[in-house]
Amino acid sequence: MLVKTVLGTLVGVAMVHAACAEDAKDWITVAETSKSVWQAQPGSGSLSNVDGRKNNGYKYLYQIKNKAKSTYEYGQAVVLLDACRKGYGFVYYNGMEGQFLSKDQFVRFGPTVADNIGSTACLAWDGETGKASLVQKDDAWTFVASVKSSGNKVYLKRDTRHKRNFKGKPSVTILSRFDNLRENTFEYTELVIASADCDRGFGTLYELNFDGGISDKWDIALNGNSVASAMGDAVCAK
Length: 238
Fold this sequence. Notes:
Elements lengths: L1 E3 L10 H4 L9 E5 L3 E5 L5 E5 L2 E14 L4 E10 H6 L1 E7 L5 E8 L5 H17 L11 E6 L6 E14 L2 E12 L4 E10 H6 L1 E7 L5 E8 L5 H10 L2
């Protein structure tokens, strides 16, 4: 999924839960582009039940201002608490009666609109509990490779690397980011490779979306010259 980079930054997100809604006068700007402004309502943050599980999510009310038309849309942004702890997942957009509308991938502390919307919920939850569910690391993203023809770049988020079982085999996975320089967009995916492939020096590198589905795969040789091989080297590196 490609998402446009955001021009604004997170502002005062702890206030999403701090004030009573009836006392709130100003909406808090969460993200801004040349066309729209996303804002959160102070005092609207609270735990939420997702998929029948009690208090496993966090939600708040948002409004989107269309700058050209001076019109507004309203809804609820919801994230799973597990996504806050892990550092990435989905932000769900619900209607005012709680009905599901859509979802976006988000990565905590990232620069996109969806990143900021999801991160706002996580940081507001942290403010409510008084504990940091995840600490930002300035050097978390590591440059891996660039595409010669376009200059587009691939990065991996080192602090997300962990072991898992994939296709019935012990494997290693890590969060990746593809920067499209011409479109000024980011694409987030997970990369996964079997641990046995890392040990023997060749195999198959899989690209997964945040739902766990396979979006692409490449046959690679570690220490090879392709971009995919460079990605595999980085995933396998301990």
